[in-house]
Structure formats: C-alpha cells, structure tokens
Amino acid sequence: MRKFDSSLVCCYLYPITKYGYPPAAENTLAHIEEMLNLGFSSIELEGIREQHLLQVYNLRFDIKKKLAAHQLEVPYFCAVLPGLSSADAVERKKNLELFEKGCEIARLIGAKGVLDNAPLPPYQFPKDIPVVRHYDEKVLQSAQFPQHLNWSKYWDELTDTIKTACQIAAAKGLTFQMHPCLGVLSATTDAFLYFSDAVKADNLRFNLDTANQFFVKDNLALSLLRLKDRIDYIHVSDNRGLKVEHLPIGNGEIHWDSFFETIDKMNYKGYFGLDIGGDESNISDLDQAYKTSAAYIEKRTI
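Above: the chain sequence. Below: its structure as tokens.
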C-alpha cells in the first residue's frame, strides 16, 4: 500500500463525514485504522466538547499504543471547546480545565500542537440548535447576545482566557493552532492579526484553511505572505465561493497554482491537512477524494 509523505495529514473530517458529528469516541481506534488504510502516515484526532473529549482522554493510552504499533504520527490534536469563549466566567474556567486535558492527550501522543476553532462570539441561539461544525449565515444573523453584555469587558476576559490556554499549551511544549471559520472572531487574516496582537502569546498560530478563507473572500496567497511566521499547519480543500464546503482539490474555484507558488516562495516546511468532506460537500467517493488530493499536494510540495 502506498504511503503518503508524513507532512500530509488525514484530518478528522474523514471520520466525521462517514459517521456524523461527532463520531463515536469509543470507535477512535477503528477510525485510526481507517485513516491508516488510506495511505496516510500522519493523521488528526479530536476531542469535541466535554463528553467526547473526556471519552478520548480515557482512551489516550490505548490510542498511543495503536499509533506506535502502526508508526503513525498525530502532529496536531484538536480540542474543540467553544465554551472557552463563553461570556460566563465559570464556563470559561471549566473549558480551560478541559483544554488542559486536551493538551495532556496531545503531549502523550507526540503532537506538536493543539487546535481549536477561533473563538465564537457569545451568541445566544434557540435551544433546539444542534451541535454543528459550522453555523450558516442565516442562523448567525438571527443570533442574539446576552442582554447586559459589556463588549470591552468581554473582550478583555476572552483574550485573557486564550492567553491562559496558550500558556497551558506552552507548558507542555505545544503550539495553539487557531482555526478560522464563518462566524468566529478570527475568520480572516486581518481578524487573526488583531486578535493575536491582543493575546500576545508566542505560541499562538493560525491554522490557515483554504476553503473557509476562500469563502469569506480572504486572498490565500496574501494570507500566506502576511502570516508566514505564524503558520505551520494548513487545512487544504477546495471551495466554489458560494457556501461553506470542503471539496477535493480541483473541484472548486481556488487558484492552486498561485497558492503553491507562494508556498514555494515562503519556503513553507509545515504540515498540510487534507480536510475534505462534511455533509455540506456532497462527495460521492470520499476515500478517492482524499487519495487524489493528497497525491496532488505531494507532487506540488515534495
């Protein structure tokens, strides 16, 4: 079986697409096997909110053993904790404790960093809104905010919380990768730079995401140049610019020649995460989408 270069990472969106969000944590070892069988020697794992993260935490030694048996790397572990940006101080404190457990998992399995979505503003949604990867524009526009929210106070508390998270990660030798998506406070290059300047943490990184940023009209080549020293992990998928979607390379409108020419110019030596799928993307052959896109990136970068 062909093995892709270790700089190419099979993202956790693969089992999410196959089994739903979040995929059952008790099946993590089986998910590892499936990503291995695609030909990857590097994969991404996740702990999604409290229950899922704690289940993965309880499996952490079995996960480490499984990875070692197959000589698999997990460069980045995702601890998805939207409660870190809550307006409630108690909720933020609870999620910092969960984040520390995510960092423990990351260090145990030899990861370089821990990844989370950029902070979601303290939106208040109807109680029947499900746990989802992405909120659509209509849902975001209908969201409310806490009645007595003081934005200046909230901003100071939020940036202090993320700085604390960065310190927790740094103490374990990890970077904190901030992932952009629609509706978060660092969805674009400008927004991340503004947020990063407020946090002031040396290990805070931007997990550039080609599809999400293309959708919000961020210029990818310019983003690479501006964030050169703050990027060591890139999520790669295509997008048509009309909605949030994560397509195989070549199935959207991203100008890949410009993207990879800029990668060469900046002498990028980080990782590329194949982040293809999701129920928004309508991909008929998921396995082939990962293999074909990984082969394309490998040809352009190795």
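The radius of gyration is 18 Å.
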